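Protein chain data
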Amino acid sequence: MPTDLSIEIELSPAFHDCDPMQVVWHGNYFRYLELARCALLQRFDYDYPQMQASGWLWPVVDARIKYLRPLRYGQKLRVRAEIVEWENRLRLEYRIHDAGSGEKLTSACTVQVAVDAASGEMQYVSPPVLWERLGVKPA
């Protein structure tokens, strides 16, 4: 079992991410989650280009978000992504915190499944390449 399947990135919402009240538009939160997810997958050398090169596509099939407090223009944020399931699907949990106070502002999760790039068939068990890249062993 690897010691750490998580990463934390920092960002500040840009003006173009916000509505007229300078609050981040709700759909843009998913972009921040994607930035953290890609940073985490890059750490294991298994981001989207490597996934495709290995013969697997990993579409998001479920995404859930809980908006606890608004994100605001220029606010310093920490976005944490953690892989919590990998056996049959790739499930990540996310937390967005205010970088200064540490207050939790958002929680979310996404689920991705392995799809064979050649056949287009969804797999019900994650392919061995994911296990290898993450450094986990089958149970």
Residues 29-43 form the longest helix (15 residues). Helices lie at 29-43, 48-53, 128-134. The mean pLDDT is 95.
